[in-house]
Design goal:
Layout (H helix, E strand, L loop, with lengths): L14 H20 L5 E10 L3 E13 L3 E3 L1 H11 L2 H20 L8 E5 L2 H5 L3 H12 L6 E6 L7 H14 L2 E7 L6 H4 L6 E4 L1 H4 L6 H17 L2 E5 L4 H9 L4 E3 L9 H19 L1
Helix pairs in contact: 3-5, 5-6
The chain binds ligand C2E and magnesium ion (3 copies).
The site of one magnesium ion has 3 residues, from loops.
Length: 286
């Protein structure tokens, strides 16, 4: 092709870029097969309320590639979104999460636990998204109140009315919504108050330096106050230290998710964590 362009054509050939492109194409082809090959797995990260105990978990997707090993969602979700593969992958995530919910429904004291599922823009924009979710709920015979969908602010910038309508329909089924990474996007307050949300999730970038950076502290306080005003729950992500937890609690946020409690872990490890915590709760009551 370079020849066809003529001998004087100026061509930039960057071998590094070429390799990156080929690498990308290979990875995409492999991602295509990942569901069928059983290479996808959900990890569970516990969500805790200081006053009410365990609230449930957020499911976070992991891809175990036979050669590459564990691939971070940060590396393959964008690719899945660009290629449209996020549609079947997102469906698999929802189905697996609902399957787990069904298991939890039959365990005492877990009636109010919820599983939070990240939903990507393309997935939510599917015309039949509501029907898909309904179908998964019906076929697994689960209580829809156990399901919480995490959206991001960028998803509600365009076609707000259609998005809100869809949220209402899902709400009617009993499903809750959380606004993920809150504070990092551009959603306006007038838009925010129209959304039928259950929860705002304070982005971890604000939590990180909450005890040392007065700006971050002020932002977090503002988000907590906003949640109270709009009657939304508020949860902080990325809680890693007791100091952060204390700051959040003192300022009116009692729900947390972060390494302080647990990293996202496979379901077996999650169950171990829960039973060790139950023992601790019981010990604390003695
Ligand atoms: P997210 O939904 O905001 O998830 C929180 C991320 O923060 C997770 O990264 C989690 O492992 C990490 N995290 C949790 N606690 C801490 C902490 O205390 N400190 C630090 N430094 N990090 C913490 P992960 O699992 O790598 O996921 C990254 C992003 O990938 C997620 O961000 C979400 O946007 C996306 N993602 C993951 N699973 C799915 C999925 O099933 N579907 C879609 N559409 N996106 C997903
Ligand atoms: Mg999330
Ligand atoms: Mg987040
Ligand atoms: Mg985040």
């Amino acid at each position: 092709q370079a020849k066809a362009a003529g001998r004087n054509a100026i061509r930039f050939f960057d071998p590094a870029m070429q390799i990156a492109l080929e690498e990308n194409a290979a990875m995409l082809a492999e991602l295509h097969q990942a569901i069928d090959n059983g290479e996808l797995e959900l990890f569970y990260q516990i969500q805790i309320d200081e006053t009410k105990g365990i609230q449930g978990a957020e499911v976070l997707l992991r891809w175990f590639h036979p050669i590459r090993g564990m691939v971070s969602p940060l590396d393959f979700i964008p690719m899945a979104e660009e290629s449209g593969l996020i549609i079947p992958i997102g469906r698999w995530v929802l189905e697996s999460a609902c399957h787990q919910l069904k298991v939890w429904e039959n365990i005492p004291n877990r009636e109010n636990w919820q599983i939070s599922v990240n939903v990507s823009a393309l997935q939510f924009q599917q015309e039949n998204f509501v029907e898909i979710v309904q179908e998964i709920i019906l076929s697994n015979n689960i209580n829809p109140h156990g399901l919480k969908l995490e959206l991001t602010e960028s998803m509600v910038l365009d076609n707000v009315d259609i998005i809100i309508e869809k949220m209402h329909q899902l709400n009617q089924l009993g499903i809750d919504f959380s606004m993920d990474d809150f504070g990092t996007g551009y959603s306006s307050l007038s838009c925010l108050k129209r959304l039928p949300l259950k929860q705002l999730k304070i982005d971890q970038s604000f939590v990180r330096d909450i005890t040392t950076d007065p700006d971050d502290a002020a932002i977090v306080q503002t988000i907590i106050n906003l949640s109270n005003s709009l009657k939304y729950d508020v949860i902080a992500e990325g809680v890693e230290t007791q100091e952060q937890r204390q700051f959040l609690f003192n300022n009116g946020c009692s729900q947390y998710q972060g390494y302080l409690f647990s990293r996202p872990v496979p379901i077996a490890e999650f169950e171990e964590l829960v039973s060790s915590m139950s023992v601790n709760f019981a010990a604390a009551l003695d």
